[in-house]
Amino acid sequence: MLKIGCHLSCSKGFAVMGRQALEIGADTFAFFTRNPRGGAAKAVDPDDAAELVRLLGEHGFGRLVAHAPYTMNPCAADENIRRFARETMADDLARMELVPDNYYNFHPGSHVKQGAEVGIALIAEQLNAVLKPEQSTTVLLETMAGKGSEVGRTFEELRQIIDRVELSDKLGVCLDTCHVWDGGYDVVSDLDGVLGEFDRIIGLDRLKAVHLNDSMNPCGSHKDRHARIGEGHIGAEALIRVINHPSLRALPMILETPNELGGYAREIAFLRENYSE
């Protein structure tokens, strides 16, 4: 069964997000763990988190895909920025245990002229510092479009991070359709080939979630500009193949298209109509 949702705001609490998801026909969702452009984190009410856990179980939700703030850069050249990233991720993972057994997704970061090898080493260093054997949350590295000095623009870079992490069983990957397309992976004409390459380099067992987005730019543009489903260069037909692909169809699908709740509801309904049970 298709598990699909979108980004929701946690400003009004966890249980509110669960009820909003149900209202728009979603059975998974994503949320930022704190202000995506800042560092502040609202205190989590344990009773509110418990109510969300109850809703998730009662309505058969798929795993949630929490998202770290964009300001978190584990491979920055500035040690203070790296310290903020380390403390933020550690705090987020502790808070995630109030809604256990879900996913925590993050952008690997930008090496800022230090070079990808240095960036990869710094990201792995942070993960080794914060991952704990007892945590129930799986941390997901997101595939990136390759703009600027982003790390994670290729499957090989993600593999190199994973190989340096001691508790790599706590790691997975979130595949963003816009990002991989903009990064040069042709998911329109050769989805099987792209997934075969992913399997060869990383392993499909590591692929835990999909960010389902169209793209405003052609393949290989390295721009990272999301579009609504069917309004970009990837197109609705190719994205329908994504949700129905045998290697992907059981994964939580998160829409990050430029929409309000009504628009997300329409996209969710459209994709459900085109999902083969």
Could you explain how this protein is built, in words?
The chain is α/β, with parallel strands linked by helices and 277 residues long. The protein has 9 helices and 10 strands. The radius of gyration is 18 Å and the shape is globular. The mean pLDDT is 96.
Task: Supply the key terms.
13% strand; two-stranded antiparallel ribbon; 277 residues; globular; 9 helices; single chain; 8-stranded parallel beta sheet
Indicate the topology.
Layout: E1 4-6, H1 14-23, E2 30-32, H2 46-58, E3 65-67, H3 79-96, E4 103-106, H4 116-130, E5 138-142, H5 155-163, E6 171-176, H6 177-182, H7 191-201, E7 207-212, E8 214-215, E9 226-227, H8 236-244, E10 253-255, H9 261-273
Helix pairs in contact: 1-2, 3-4, 4-5
Number of helices: 9
Instruction: Give the helices and strands as they follow along the chain.
Output: EHEHEHEHEHEHHEEEHEH
In the sheet with the most strands, the strands line up as 1-10-7-6-5-4-3-2
Beta strand %: 5-15%
Sum up the overall morphology in one term: globular
Helix content: 25-40%
Short description:
38% of the residues lie in helices and 13% in strands. The protein has 277 residues and is an alpha/beta fold.
